[in-house]
Amino acid sequence: MTIDWDIEAATFDDEPDHGLRDTVVRDAWARRLRDWLPDTTGDVLDLGCGTGSLSLLAAERGHRVTAVDRSPNMVERAREKLSGHEAEVLVADAWEPPVRGRRFDVILARHVLWMVPDPAAVLRHWCGLLRPEGRLILIEGVWGTTNPTGIPMDRLISALTPLAARLHSERLSGDERLWGRRVEDERYAVVATLPALRRHEEVSRHEEVSRHKEVVDVHLILRRGDEVLLARRANTGYGDGLFNVPSGHVEPGEDVRTAVLREAHEEIGLTLTPEDVSAELVLQHRGPGGEPRIGWFFEATYGTGGEPFNAEPHKCDELSWHRAATLPDDMVAYCRAALEAWRAGERFALHWQEEGDAVRYEEGGDGRTVVLARPRSGAGG
To answer: Are the beta carbons of 33 and 61 closer than 8 angstroms?
Structure first.
């Protein structure tokens, strides 16, 4: 079930427990977290953090907190609340946090899992973000009687059993201090602890960490005559306010063509077929102070797959057409370098930025693009 996150967050915010403004409620949650969180300082990822109340309780216990919420309004309030603590707050979907290969000791999610599109897949993904013996702290429930909504505790435990070494569950409905009132519906917490690495797994993990890895991106160059479609990023934490072509990461098990078809549908509402796209450029990129990544740039023609529209307004605040020969300056440098290489008919290139370079395109270019193959005939006119 997919629910408008902002509406849901506002609904919970009207309840006395969401902001933990009441001293008794706040103390009750602090006591629970004291039992659920590790005694030693660690890295906590709070997904669907709302206004950051539970993040603050974790930070006050000395943990380093990364908090994620889809609502920019909630994130702004959480940032204010966590000011002065070792914490960062990001705008993103809870089921796909932008943590770029980092690992955590704890993932905390309250009233989130029941809203995600595929809870079983999300649980597997979250477990992949945890260190060995890391903990998933999931606070969920089933609300309503006529049309109950949520995840029953036994179903969540069943989904976690193959993933966890240890499971601990607590029913929370009966503790009025947690909610500021009496509740009749099912509310509970499940704490799942991942297995420790065995020795052969330690060797495998060491080899895995040592082996070079790169994120793979896919990008769609949608052409309308001599124009290309650009999307202006918003609320993502990277390149916000700058234009980019529709793009995203390749998911585990996906090939690059399948990934660009999925991203085209998710971001601009197009239903493209494999025959509608062609691979035009492969560009290896490193952003300023970042890790290397591989970008596959595909081309499609306007009129195939439907009429493009902004399908992710929480991540993009404008779609607009621009002549490929006179692209705007307010672009992500990575994308601008790729489009210029594409226009020149290049097939393979590097765009290797250094510490101190700008994410935003700089007039005249940054001089970081290196061509790796003989050019084709010009693509962009």
So the answer is: yes
Q: Which two tokens stand for residue 81?
A: 């609340």
For 224, 288, 318, 371, the CA distances from 354, given in Å and listed in that order, are 34, 5, 29, 17
Tell me, what's the pLDDT at 118? Answer: 85
Q: What are phi and psi of 349, to 5 degrees?
A: -155, 165
Residue 35 tokens read as: 């039992």
Using CA atoms, how far apart are residues 64 and 104, in angstroms rounded to an integer?
Answer: 10
Per-residue confidence (pLDDT) for residue 16, from 0 to 100: 34
Domains in the chain, CATH or no CATH each = 5-203 (3.40.50.150), 214-371 (3.90.79.10)
Could you say which residues of the chain have pLDDT below 50? 1-17
Quote the pTM value. Answer: 0.52
Q: Which residues, 6 or more positions from 225, have their beta carbon under 8 angstroms from its beta carbon? A: 302
Encoding tokens for residue 198? 């065995």
Structure tokens at 195: 């297995």
Q: Computed over its alpha carbons, how large is the radius of gyration of the chain? A: 23
